[in-house]
Amino acid sequence: MPFPPQIRIGTRGSVLALAQAGWVKDRITERDPGYRVELVVIKTTGDKIHDIPLAQVGGKGLFIKEIEEALLAGAVDLAVHSLKDMPAALPGGLVLAAVPPREDWRDALISQQYATLADLPPGARVGTGSLRRRVQLLHARPDLDIVPLRGNVDTRLKKMETLGLDAIILAAAGLARLGLSHVAQSFLSAEEMLPAVGQGALGLEVRAGDRQLRAALAFLDDPETRTAVAGERAFLARLEGGCVVPVAALGRVDGDLLTLEALISDLDGRGLIRRRLTGPGQEAAALGSRLAQELLDLGGREILAALRAQPF
Asked: Is 256 one of the annotated active-site residues of the chain?
């Protein structure tokens, strides 16, 4: 299916977002050099708020809302998002046209002195703006001092020095896309740090009625990645979670089977609940929903109620 003669890609203006959108643009123009592809930078609410934890200002949808509004208004034709920034439910009229092959889903430890989490001394100051990372760090190492950290990759790397942090945790995928994987001292296993829903994957969002573009983008869709993130996002949808709820999930595909591992936690990591399920990949959404229900029944329901009742 040919592309329309011109495609306007909506993207945030950060270096990482532009690199991701640029990757999609390059794949399209490689497919057919005759197409005109333009990147349209859109500043989101999340980009305007730098020093307040996301849990206090509305969660992950802050990084995509204005781009989705531009897509619905016809100002852009395609939006490229980090899938972990996307809420589980899309606005009416929008769909995920493609989910390209997933980049590294792991988190990375960055430090000038320490190679692993185990190497960090008692009281070490670790920077992260993620509740998910915070609770897993505290669950494993309640002796750590977790310091709130926001900003793009470059800003966070600089703050490690200016704030006197012993380490920071960043997504390995973002480092890889910026050519910065070498700054990581180590990459954390799923046992050490279960990732955010969709971490490492891109979501290519279009208008549901734009059938020509949806069909043309099909070559970028990776069935294995789509299956894995479908399970993860169904888990998130069942919990109705976001940045204000410390949850994590990872789907891994092996042949026709999908293994989903997920957790939910209170804010100090003491009440962390974690489980794993395996089932047919074609039933990814049902598997994610069932795993969420298990966690809710094991105490997650009480955790969610307590979190939603407290001010951030």
From this structure: no
